[in-house]
């Protein structure tokens, strides 16, 4: 069910539990600011999620509250993951669903990285 991205952070969401080590993940990258892991329900041959380690519900929440070093670290982590996975040359898509209209399902900011085949148009017509 899509969530309201303006609600307070819920520390019982699945990504918060992954960050605390309560739920396992197939980790591909981790640093002080971000964690990246394979999606358990991939929508493309390569489908990796990148999440900030801080408690942010959405992109606007992150942009408003995160320190500059955390913002830079998260953005760099996304780029690092794409490069390390060999996605840059053939191309990849970044997607961050924010709020109900975009069908955000987990109330923790996350970026999907899709690759591995031609992805088609950005939105269904």
Overall description:
- It contains three helices and five strands.
- It is α+β, with helices and mostly antiparallel strands.
- It has a five-stranded antiparallel beta sheet, with helices on one face.
Low-pLDDT parts are none
Q: Characterize the largest beta sheet: strand count, sense, and whether it forms a barrel.
A: 5 strands, antiparallel
Number of helices: 3
N-to-C span: 23 Å
Give the gist of this structure.
The protein has 125 residues and is an alpha+beta fold.
Provide key terms for this protein.
single chain, 125 residues, alpha+beta, 5-stranded antiparallel sheet, 5 strands, 24% helix, globular
Please give the structural blueprint:
Elements (H helix, E strand, L loop, with lengths): L13 H6 L7 E4 L3 E5 L7 E7 L6 H7 L2 H17 L8 E3 L15 E5 L10
Antiparallel strand pairs: 1-2, 2-3, 3-5, 4-5
């Amino acid at each position: 069910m899509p969530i309201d991205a303006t609600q307070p952070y819920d520390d019982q969401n699945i990504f918060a539990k992954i960050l605390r080590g309560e739920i396992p993940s197939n980790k591909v990258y981790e640093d002080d600011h971000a964690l990246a892991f394979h999606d358990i329900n991939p929508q493309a041959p390569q489908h990796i999620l990148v999440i900030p380690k801080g408690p942010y519900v959405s992109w606007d929440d992150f942009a408003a509250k995160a320190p500059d070093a955390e913002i830079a670290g998260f953005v760099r982590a996304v780029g690092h993951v794409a490069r390390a996975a060999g996605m840059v040359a053939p191309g990849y898509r970044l997607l961050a669903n924010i709020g109900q209209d975009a069908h955000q399902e987990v109330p923790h900011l996350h970026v999907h990285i899709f690759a591995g085949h031609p992805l088609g148009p950005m939105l269904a017509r």
